[in-house]
TrEMBL record:
The lineage of its organism: Bacteria, Pseudomonadati, Pseudomonadota, Alphaproteobacteria, Hyphomicrobiales. It comes from the Bacteria. Keywords: Glycosyltransferase, Transferase. The keyword Glycosyltransferase applies. It is an enzyme of class 2 (transferase). Belongs to the glycosyltransferase 9 family. GO terms for cellular component: cytosol. CDD domains: GT9_LPS_heptosyltransferase. SUPFAM superfamilies: UDP-Glycosyltransferase/glycogen phosphorylase. It catalyses: an L-alpha-D-Hep-(1->5)-[alpha-Kdo-(2->4)]-alpha-Kdo-(2->6)-lipid A + ADP-L-glycero-beta-D-manno-heptose = an L-alpha-D-Hep-(1->3)-L-alpha-D-Hep-(1->5)-[alpha-Kdo-(2->4)]-alpha-Kdo-(2->6)-lipid A + ADP + H(+). This is lipopolysaccharide heptosyltransferase II.
Amino acid sequence: MNIDSIPDIETQDAEDTRPILVVPYVWIGDFVRGHTVVRVLRKRWPNRPVDLLTTRQCAPLVDYMPGVRAGIVSDLPRSRLAISRQRALAAELRARAYATALVLPRTWKAALAPALAGIPERVGFFGEARFGLINAMRWGEKQQPRFIDKNAILALPDGAARPPEWPVPQLRVPADEIARWRQVNGLGTGPAIALGPGSVGASKRWTYYPEAARLFAERGFDVWVVGGPGEKALAQEITAIGGAPVRDLTGTDLRNGALAMAAASVAITNDSGLMHIAAAIGTPTMGIFGPTDPYLWAPLNGLAATVRQTRSKLSCQPCQRTVCTMNDHRCMRDIAPEEVVEIAQRVLAQINAR
């Protein structure tokens, strides 16, 4: 689906050229899902430029998002207001002359810089007594069943019905950039399995990535371990067990992670930001779910396979908790590495049969 073929969303004014700012959630997966909001806005107003407020970490993803004019980098601290930095950001936003700001997070702090910048229309849900900061207040957030619904509905006219389907997030990574990345990292051109063993919250982490990497390596696959600095120790454990065909590609640059997911034949991840990146790129992606509900948190793009604990129904599942407090993490422990490898090989066979 491309921007011009989004059903159920009407183009309102093709002559309007006033720029729009989107203030998204900046966890990686949520940031990727924010591209749905961009696509809805571009459908409604094809000639209104759309910019994204972003952190330095997420900024590389903006380069791959069609329909985004620019990313405005601002690493505001999470734990304090930082009024001087808010004012500096507001000055930058004021210079860009935005006519509309969509503030997706419900926090008071997220709405402050757009208000200080004097952006005429500031759209957002009621939250943290933001009267005055948000001047186009929306209500009924709790009536929206999913996180994506709560965000994307803000891009529609107030009171509009939710469409049957939202446009999916897109990340378009140029083929020549992927080829250069593989060459620079000495990865060759053969098929590879990308593993994303990290996630926010220990309960979402499947514990058998080292065993799965070894099985893939024994069956002749190259294996790449992808993630941030927090996954470095785990990547070393996986490479030690998997052997020479397993490469540690963890690092600090999210562009590296996006390129790895774009180059891989199949991506296998927890419910994480890398899952959303891989799915938005179009790489066949297997998401491993235990404590979280795929209906609420899986990518809109769809997954090549959704892997869940199915041998016995656990009364606590899905708990949505970041740390397991009962049943000894069985929702993830009961997913065997052999099962995941077999599913991945079926996915690869389907790809090769096309």
